[in-house]
Design brief:
Number of helices: 0
Number of strands: 16
Shape: globular
Radius of gyration: 17 Å
Distance between the termini: 51 Å
Strand order of the largest sheet: 1-8-7-6-5
Helix content: under 10%
Length: 190
Amino acid sequence: MASSAKAAVSSRYAPARDRKQSVGVPVVYQQYQPMASGCPDGSAETLISSASSVWGKNIHPQFSPDGRKIAFDSDRTGDREVWTCDADGENCQQLTKFGGPIGGNPRWSPDSQWIALDSRASGNPEIYVIAADGGAPRRLTTSPYNNMVPSWSRDGRWIYFTSDRSGRYEVWKMSRDGGEAIQVTRAAVL
């Protein structure tokens, strides 16, 4: 269901296609409850979302790689869920409906078609993917451990995430289609 509440940036600001460019490139960011966009040099700041719920939490914003949408967490319905909106702040859409457990940390796939996120819907944090235009979230991890804060590989084949399944928090990766998790980091014990 789309919402008429504005929650994104002005369309004149879009993320750079060239990742090496940084001066004058707009970013979306959060300062406590409101979200805003602006360039790293401090220019062109635009408020994109103010407190719109009882708690006023609109957090973890990220532009889609194609610059057309923003994904973010919001508790505007009373539960923390993942939302998207157009880059101009219009057409807010609630993607997840976990109905109580925290869902968040949305991260776009490189092709802007999918969003990886974490949720406590099963009791402990697990990694899910959902189509950027909505649908049912698909759970990727199924373990009794904490799996959270997903991030996509540049080629979109892998989702990296933090997990304590080795006894300490480390970086793991899993195919975007699910399957066995592979440990990436191994912290040295001093």
